[in-house]
Amino acid sequence: MSHQDDLVEALTPVIAAFNKLQIAHCVGGSVASAFHGAVRSTMDVDLLCELQETQIASFLSCFDPNFYVSESAVRDAVKRTSCFNLIHLPTSFKVDVFISHGRGFDRTRMQRATSEKLGDNPFVMVPMTTAEDSIISKLEWYRKSDETSERQWDDVSRLVQLLGSSADFDYLREAAAATGVVDLLDRLLVSDWH
């Protein structure tokens, strides 16, 4: 099986659980960056979602023994709006699930996500974070890592280059202001090419 097949196999049941329970969600992180052209190898996939405490039992019941998931980790993540992971044992793929903080940017990012096909045969349809929202999200991660993660900076640099003049610069500035990363966006866009 290919890396892409493993990703699809691990992600399909998770997306199905979110859809079944009507939980807003979107795929982000390096999988979204790769989808938009900034390819980098990864053995995990990041999801942002609005999982509520009342939905935890139903969510957990969606997973068979092919998945390792800790109920206490899920409950703790929902309570603290942090993250938990599911590990798909047959492929060793990790699905990192980030609980939305309920911020405007989180909601907008999920609303703006576009339905996209991951994989060929098999494939899974997922709500994919836009390239602009990926840039803002990765700038946030860069800031949280004390601006030391070269991988995050390389990802956003490549995304900006790939988007070129088609980037929605007005939206980028608005979202950067809402998340406190305007200075990082300005540093990223310092060249005059756009």
Please provide a written account of the structure.
With 194 residues, the chain is α+β, with helices and mostly antiparallel strands. Helices cover 49% and strands 19% of the residues. The chain has helices at residues 3-20, 29-35, 56-60, 71-80, 104-112, 131-144, 150-163, 169-179, 182-188, and strands at residues 25-28, 44-49, 67-68, 83-88, 93-99, 114-119, 123-128. A five-stranded mixed beta sheet has the order 1-2-5-4-3, sandwiched between helices. Helix 8 runs antiparallel to helix 9 (182-188). The longest helix has 18 residues, at 3-20. The radius of gyration is 17 Å and the shape is globular. The N and C termini lie far apart (41 Å).
Mean pLDDT: 93
Large-scale geometry: globular
Biggest β-sheet strands, sense, barrel? 5 strands, mixed
* Rg calculated over all Cα atoms: 17 Å
Order of helices and strands: HEHEHEHEEHEEHHHH
Quaternary organization: single chain
How many DSSP E strands?
7
CATH class of the largest domain reads Alpha Beta
CATH topology of the largest domain: Beta Polymerase, domain 2
Give the total of domains. 2
CA(first)-CA(last) distance:
41 Å
User: Helical amount among residues, as a percent range?
Assistant: 40-55%
User: Helix count?
Assistant: 9
Main sheet: strand order: 1-2-5-4-3
Name given to the CATH architecture of the largest domain: 2-Layer Sandwich
Structural class: alpha+beta
Strand content: 15-25%
